[in-house]
Amino acid sequence: MKKLITSILSVFLLTSAAYSFDRPSISIGGSFTAAYFETSAHEVEASEKSAEEEGAALGGYASAFVELTLAVTHTNNDYGKGLADVYVAAVKAHGINVTAVTAHEEGKGDYGAEVATLASAGGDALAVLGYLDQAGGSIIAGSLDAGSFDKFVLSDGMIGDSLTDRFGKDLNKSFGSLPGSTGKGAGVFSTVAKGAGIDSSGPYTGESYDAAALIVLAMQAGGKADRATVQKNVMDVANAPGKKIYPGELKKALDLLAKGKAVNYEGATAVEFTDVGEAFGSFLEKEIKGGKFKTKKQR
Q1: Taking the mean position of all CA atoms in its chain, how far away is CA 222?
Q2: Is cis: bond before 241, omega within 30 of 0?
Q3: Which among 15, 14, 28, 39 has a CA at the least distance from the CA of 229?
Q4: In degrees, to the nearest 5, what angle opens at C-alpha 201 toward C-alphas 291 and 280?
Q5: Tag placement on the chain: N or C end, fewer CB within 10 Å?
Q6: CATH code 3.40.50.2300 region(s) in the chain
Q7: Is the pTM of this model over 0.70?
Q8: At 5, is the pLDDT very low, low, confident or very high (cuts 50, 70, 90)?
């Protein structure tokens, strides 16, 4: 993903070499505004949906699959704690009994104690709110080996091909959700990303691409490479009116802006800001069938 973002920024730097670049960052998630920038950031930050949006979406989706009871484990950081709080409230509102809520640390060699605690609490399923290639994956492995759970509810950080490559059909009853879209831009981005050797299915990959592209376009629209320029122009290049711009069309957009023409950046995630700078967001409901993630629908 970094290689893809770097290639986007390189196009801007090559076309605007005379500008000073103070490396602003942008977040286009539902709980943040387009006016949030940091000059101290050394990389473009991935835009994130708020924990409230994600937790509510995942909680509502879980109610269609989980009958009565659910155990929850989350990574022990601000992201995990915030997501768990909203998620637990959402599933309880749907009448699901939560048997346990536990935190897990990343980077441990063994998660036997965590697995045992969750097994003791029991439940029809285990919600794993964490990271698929770290503790989250290890807790799933331990739960499957112990026979304590065979259905898992997965947060966005748990969704990726490496998870199904590892566990295959053992996860066939599992499901989750992550930010994404099934629109035209998503399909185009998948092709563009594949050409760059990037897996477009991971969480926030499309959002990262769009965040970087919006910074580039806002700078071009304002003629300067500073955060004030980005802040002033980002909503104009993201919203109508203007020529719709999809992944892989950044040069086209830069040329249009250089001619004083308007662009409407759709990107990979159908970017659209409200009048107060918040991004409309959508989520993809994912099920594992035949040992592979399948998109059920866009929420």
Answers
A1: 28
A2: yes
A3: 39
A4: 125
A5: C
A6: 51-179+289-298
A7: no
A8: very low
Question: Tokens at residue 164, please?
Answer: 């199904």
Look up tokens 């909503």; give the residue: 235
The tokens for 39 are 């000059």
Tens digits of per-residue pLDDT, 197-238? 887 776 678 878 888 999 999 999 999 988 889 889 998 999
> How far is CA 271 from each of CA 142, 179, 185, 289, rounded to the nearest angstrom?
39, 12, 10, 30
Q: Bigger pLDDT: 14 or 178?
A: 178
pLDDT at 28: 45
- Residue-level pLDDT at 173: 87
Could you identify the residue written with the tokens 């919600």?
Answer: 127
